[in-house]
TrEMBL record:
<dbReference type="InterPro" id="IPR020094">
    <property type="entry name" value="TruA/RsuA/RluB/E/F_N"/>
</dbReference>
<feature type="compositionally biased region" description="Low complexity">
    <location>
        <begin position="13"/>
        <end position="25"/>
    </location>
</feature>
<feature type="compositionally biased region" description="Basic residues">
    <location>
        <begin position="1"/>
        <end position="10"/>
    </location>
</feature>
<dbReference type="InterPro" id="IPR050343">
    <property type="entry name" value="RsuA_PseudoU_synthase"/>
</dbReference>
<dbReference type="InterPro" id="IPR000748">
    <property type="entry name" value="PsdUridine_synth_RsuA/RluB/E/F"/>
</dbReference>
<dbReference type="InterPro" id="IPR006145">
    <property type="entry name" value="PsdUridine_synth_RsuA/RluA"/>
</dbReference>
<dbReference type="InterPro" id="IPR036986">
    <property type="entry name" value="S4_RNA-bd_sf"/>
</dbReference>
<protein>
    <recommendedName>
        <fullName>Pseudouridine synthase</fullName>
        <ecNumber>5.4.99.-</ecNumber>
    </recommendedName>
</protein>
<feature type="compositionally biased region" description="Low complexity">
    <location>
        <begin position="348"/>
        <end position="360"/>
    </location>
</feature>
<dbReference type="InterPro" id="IPR018496">
    <property type="entry name" value="PsdUridine_synth_RsuA/RluB_CS"/>
</dbReference>
<keyword id="KW-0413">Isomerase</keyword>
<keyword id="KW-0694">RNA-binding</keyword>
<dbReference type="Pfam" id="PF00849">
    <property type="entry name" value="PseudoU_synth_2"/>
</dbReference>
<comment type="similarity">
    <text>Belongs to the pseudouridine synthase RsuA family.</text>
</comment>
<feature type="domain" description="RNA-binding S4">
    <location>
        <begin position="68"/>
        <end position="128"/>
    </location>
</feature>
<dbReference type="InterPro" id="IPR002942">
    <property type="entry name" value="S4_RNA-bd"/>
</dbReference>
<dbReference type="Pfam" id="PF01479">
    <property type="entry name" value="S4"/>
</dbReference>
């Protein structure tokens, strides 16, 4: 009490720090609120909640009475707690086979559907290994080299070496950057086969000054000894009198294609680094290191190829080959192609690395051989 008879206000002690919990569902929360910018190139706009009649149609289309509740499937996949997953569904942030579901009572069979939360693919029951290797210069793209040169296998531990991994495509000895390793033969096939037109992005240090006219030539296409080729994106990042830094994106997997097109415009490549495959970026991963793909990265990879974890394919990819990946090639091999093959290629895609799978348009298939070294 004060001298005037008024009650002195009491000071509320500060609340103890709360334990770290699963992010609360809402506009600024949810399981994918904190996205590493090195791992996700661009955020996709969230879809609006469907109208009542559309929501009822979506429920009827995806509901399987013999399946498991959707929120339980999401919780088991590590998205969030079951209660938070219920909120995510009610907010219209969950898609099943491309349909927004807002009824928590929907049941699905996880092995038979594709699920996205905030546009990010949810992976379930992954049986294969999917690794990213940041290849240094001087390493040959083979698991072991009979000539004793540095190879991929030198960077694997004993457990990973025994997993039957193959490298997805090739980078020549002096090319650096992103190289995927997997024991999923179907995934490796789709990432390397030219009919699937998987975009790859490179950072090129070219000799001399690459001009705007050279950039237009690359976009329009040049004629090489094995046929015409054009890049899909080209950005001049930095230029001086002796060198130019250029970023190019293209689908073709023809042997040493990036080096050859820059030789053709008389700006030989001094250094070449592959920085991205689709929306997967090497980011700040140290050279010479290998790490497993994260859930979001694997989700983007599955969307890019239409392959389900464990070797299944979705409705876009036809039947799934059942053969296991072939043995790792030796250094004398000209290409690294697993034996698994799909019966029908996916529709051709454009070469816009940041674009979403749903926005890729159909385009004319470009001439090109199987994935080769750069």
């Amino acid at each position: 009490m004060t001298s005037s008879g008024k009650r002195r206000p009491t000071r509320t002690p500060p609340r103890a720090a709360r334990a770290v919990r699963t992010p609360r569902a809402g506009a600024s929360g949810g399981p994918f609120a904190d996205v590493d910018p090195q791992r996700l190139v661009v955020d996709e706009a969230r879809r609006a909640k469907p109208r009542l009649d559309e929501a009822e149609d979506n429920f009827a289309a995806v509901h399987d009475p013999s399946g498991e509740r959707l929120q339980k499937v999401l919780a088991r996949a590590g998205v969030a707690s079951r209660r938070v997953c219920e909120s995510l569904i009610a907010e219209g942030r969950v898609e099943v086979d491309g349909r927004v579901v807002v009824e928590p009572g929907v049941r699905v069979r996880a092995e038979a559907v594709r699920i996205h939360v905030d546009g990010v693919r949810v992976t379930l029951g992954v049986e294969h290994q999917y690794l990213m290797f940041n290849k240094p210069a001087g390493v040959v793209t083979t698991m072991s080299d009979p000539q004793g040169r540095p190879a991929i296998g030198d960077h694997l531990d004993a457990e990973t070496s025994a997993a039957g991994l193959v490298h997805v495509g090739r980078l020549d000895r002096e090319t650096e950057g992103l190289l995927l390793l997997t024991n999923d033969g179907e995934m490796a096939h789709r990432l390397t086969h030219p009919s699937y037109e998987v975009p790859k992005t490179y950072l090129v240090e070219a000799a001399g000054r690459v001009t705007a006219a050279d950039r237009r030539r690359l976009l329009a296409g040049v004629e090489l000894e094995d046929g015409p080729i054009a890049v899909d994106e080209c950005r001049i990042l930095e230029s001086s009198g002796s060198r130019t830094m250029v970023e190019v994106t293209l689908h073709s997997g023809r042997n040493r294609i990036v080096r050859r097109i820059f030789d053709h415009i008389e700006h030989p490549v001094r250094r070449l680094v592959r920085t991205a495959i689709g929306r997967l970026t090497v980011g700040d991963q140290p050279q010479g290191t290998i790490r497993p793909l994260g859930r979001q990265e694997l989700g983007h990879l599955l969307d890019l190829t239409g392959v389900e974890p464990g070797g299944r394919t979705d409705s876009r990819g036809g039947e799934t080959a059942t053969e296991a990946p072939g043995p790792a090639p030796t250094s004398g091999s000209s290409q690294s192609t697993p034996s698994a093959r799909a019966s029908g290629p996916k529709q051709a895609r454009t070469n816009r690395a940041p674009s979403s799978a749903s926005s890729r348009s159909t385009r004319r298939r470009r001439p090109g051989a199987q994935e080769g070294g750069r």
